[in-house]
Amino acid sequence: MASSAITRIPTPSGEPHTALSADAVSYVGVVFTTHVPDRADGSLELGDIRRQTEQVFHNLSETLSAAGSSLSRLLHLTIHLTDMADREVFNEVYAARIPQPLPVRCCVAVAALATEGMRIEITAHAAVAPSADGSSNLRDHVTGAAGT
Question: Is the entire prediction scored with pTM above 0.90?
């Protein structure tokens, strides 16, 4: 049975109290996460839509792995694009990265994102892989379970 505790996966800095958001939150076997095209050093990838999309999917894959999930366990994606003309290139990267069966998805155009030059932001929900005993399988570095 999945735990009813809310588990927050910390930011890469290991100091979630300095961030405005956790990397991901897991609850009842589902992980929730949102990603922008930030690099490991904290800078943003502000290149073309292909480079930004590749960076977002890299980040998403890393976070899902840390949460005991993967791109193959995606349930839903909400894709925010600042220009719907970028959708074709986004779809090429998406098709190369996301395995079948595909998740449900929604793609919306937004006027702007948090930083000028940022063209994409993705929110994802994915199933957490159960462990042998049926409980959620969060990685050892996950900290801060808080039930509400």
Answer: no
